[in-house]
């Protein structure tokens, strides 16, 4: 049986959507094929994102920053989840009209000044995880336990 496909969409695909992709794959990868993309991809993932994900034992080294256009006309998503207001506004209509569209807004670590970026990235990572755990529970899926919250 094919797993439902989930797309996390943000602007730069350098922080929030990358964390959401790694976290959902860890929490429920046996239920979903998980992807992320950006409406204006930055081309790389913030180093702070790699660091905070490693802190909780999630390896995202195989993920990369990519454009939502890579999936246009090629992939049907059961869930399209925007994680920032800009992506919500600029998401190609084809994605908003497929499957279930949801909006989970989170602060953007990429916009934080250097001294605060690491702490904000940790806070956003934890908020994404809490939100995804609730989302999975609402769907009747028990999230994998890989760490204590």
Task: List the keywords.
single chain, 149 residues, alpha/beta, Rossmann fold, four-stranded parallel β-sheet, 4 strands, 15% strand
Topology:
Elements (H helix, E strand, L loop, with lengths): L3 E7 L5 H13 L3 E7 L8 H9 L23 E4 L2 H6 L2 H4 L3 E4 L10 H25 L11
Parallel strand pairs: 1-2, 1-3, 3-4
Helix pairs in contact: 1-5, 2-5
Account of the protein in words:
The protein is an alpha/beta fold. It has 5 helices and 4 strands, in the order βαβαβααβα. The protein has one domain: Rossmann fold, CATH 3.40.50.2300. The relative contact order is 0.22. The mean pLDDT is 90.
Under CATH, the topology is which?
Answer: Rossmann fold
Main sheet record: 4 strands, parallel
CATH class: Alpha Beta
Helix content: 25-40%
CATH architecture level-2 label: 3-Layer(aba) Sandwich
Shape: globular
Care to count the β-strands? 4
Radius of gyration: 14 Å
